[in-house]
Amino acid sequence: MLLADVVATSRAVAATRSRLAKVELLAQLLRGQDPEDVTTVTSYLAGSLRQRRTGLGWRSLQHLPSPADEASLTVSEVHHTFEQIAALSGTGSQRARADATAELFGRATSDEQQWLKGLVTGEVRQGALDSLVQEALAVVGGVPVAAVRRAAMMAGSTVDVAAAALTGDPDALAEFVLQVGRPVLPMLASSASTVAEAMAKAGGGTVAIDTKLDGVRIQVHRSGDDVLVVTRSLDDVTARHPEVVAVARALPCHDVVLDGEVLALGPDGRPRPFQETASRAASSTGVHLTPSFFDVLHVDGRDLVDEPTHVRLEMLEALVPADNLVPRLITSEPVEAESFATQVLERGHEGVVVKSLAAPYAAGRRGATWVKVKPVHTLDLVVLAVERGSGRRSEWLSNIHLGARDADSGELVMLGKTFKGMTDEILRWQTERFRELQTSDDGHVVTVRPEQVVEIAFDGVQRSTRYPGGVALRFARVVRYRDDKTAAEADTLADVRTHLA
Ligand SMILES: Nc1ncnc2c1ncn2[C@@H]1O[C@H](COP(=O)(O)OP(=O)(O)OP(=O)(O)O)[C@@H](O)[C@H]1O
C-alpha cells in the first residue's frame, strides 16, 4: 500500500461531513490490503506510530530534505524505517537516526513529508477517527461492528485487533477476551444539563445516581500480589499509587479488575482542591490519595463486562470496603435523585453520573448508559500559543491562546485567550511545558505544538467576528491542565457552539 493513498484518504475523510462517506473512504483504503499494512494504517489514522518511542521529536524534523516529486513510499517501508530508528541505541545512534530520517523524508513528497511530520510529533492524533476505522474494519471484514468494538475494548486498542477483523472470522475477534493485567478501554459518559434529563436519557426507571468525584481516573488490575494501575489513557502509573496498590492487595480475592477515581481527601472527607490530586499523581508529594471504585469488570475468573450494571455493583459492594466505594443512590424518583445530587455538591464534589442499571460495561461514549451532570460547565480546549507575561509575571509564559478543532475541516480554530485562574504553580508548570512544545517565538507570542489540553471554565459563549470560528468565550479561566486527554479528545467547535446563548 502506498503512503500517498493513506495521506489522501486521511485528507478526504477530514473534508467529508457524512459519517457514512467517511467510513466508505476508509473501507476503500483498507479493502484487499495486507493485514500487517492494515495494522500500521489503523495506527497511523489514529495519529500514532506503532513504535512507542523513536527518539525523534519536533526538533529533529525542523530541517527536512527537499521532497520527492513522485509518490513511491510504501506503508511497510515507512513502518520498517521507524522500527529501525526505534531500535537504535548507544554511540552513533543519534547520527544513524538523523541519517535514516533524512533518507525517509527525502523519499517523501511534500504532502507526505507534512503528514509524516505530524505523525511523528503527534500533531495529527485523531482519536475521533478510531470509531470510524472500527466501522470500516467491520465493513471490509464482513463482521459486526460490535464485535470489532468489543475486541478493541478488551485489547485496549483498535490497532491490535485490526488484522483479526480483516479475517472476517468472528471467532478471531472473540479471542480478545478480558485478561487480568491487560488494560481495557474505559467506558465514558455523555452529558445532560439536569438530573431529570439524565435519568430519562439513561432509559428511565430505576437508575444509579453516582457521586462524580473530581479526581483522576484509574483502572486497577490485580492478580495475587501483582497490581497494575493505569490512567484513562491506559498509561501505567502503578509506581505513583502505593495507596491504590495497598487497597487492591487487601481485597478478599485473588484476581480483580476495578474502575474508579483517585483523589486527595481532607480529614473531614471533603475533596481537596484538584491541584493537590494532580500534582501528587504526577510526582510524589506528602498528599495521601484515596481510591474510590465505581465499577468492577472481573473477579476471580468471572468476567463481569457483559453483566448488567446492577450485578456488577452488587459484586463491587461485596468486595470493596465502604471507604473505597463511590457513594451512590439507587432510585427511580427524580426528586430523590435531585436531593442526592444537591448533597453531593454540598460535600464538595463535582456532580453526579446517572447510570442505567441494565447496561453492560462498554468502552467509549456510545449510547447513554452513563450520563454526567455537572453544574459548572467547562470545556477541554487545546493551547495554540502563549504570550510572555509582564509585570509580576514577566518571568513566566502567561496568556494562553485557546482553540477547538473544527471537526469538518480538521483545523484548530482559536476561540479566545486567558491568563485567569492560574496559580503560581500552574504558571511555573505551563512555562516549562510550553517551552518544550514551542515551535516559534516572536519575542511576545510563543507558538506551540497544539498538544496540551486545558480545562476552561467560562460564563458563556457568544457570537464574535473577532475569531475565525465565529464564537468567543466570555470570562474564560483555567481550571486545570489535563494530561489524561489528547488534543483529539478535546471538545470540538460544535461542542463549544452548544453553549451559545
Ligand atoms: N462515579 C463515577 N462514575 C463514572 N465516572 C466517574 C465517576 N466519578 C468520577 N468520574 C469521572 O468522570 C469521567 C466520566 O466523564 P467523561 O467520560 O465525560 O470523561 P471526561 O471527559 O474525563 O469527563 P470530566 O472532564 O467531566 O471528568 C470518568 O472518566 C471519570 O474520570
What does this structure look like?
It is a single chain. This protein has helices at residues 3-15, 19-30, 35-45, 75-87, 93-106, 110-121, 129-141, 145-155, 162-166, 170-174, 195-201, 242-249, 274-282, 309-319, 334-346, 424-437, 493-497; strands at 190-191, 207-212, 216-223, 226-230, 255-264, 289-299, 302-303, 328-331, 351-356, 370-373, 378-388, 397-405, 412-418, 438-441, 445-448, 453-457, 460-463, 471-474, 477-482. The chain has 501 residues and is an alpha+beta fold. It has three domains: 3-174, DNA ligase, ATP-dependent, N-terminal domain (DNA ligase i, domain 1); 188-373, D-amino Acid Aminotransferase, Chain A, domain 1 (2-Layer Sandwich), CATH 3.30.470; 377-499, OB fold (Dihydrolipoamide Acetyltransferase, E2P), CATH 2.40.50.140. Helix 1 (3-15) packs antiparallel against helix 2, helix 4 (75-87) runs antiparallel to helix 5 (93-106) and helix 7 packs across helix 8 (145-155). Adenosine-5'-triphosphate binds next to strand 2.
Describe what is shown at a glance.
By secondary structure, this protein is an alpha+beta fold.
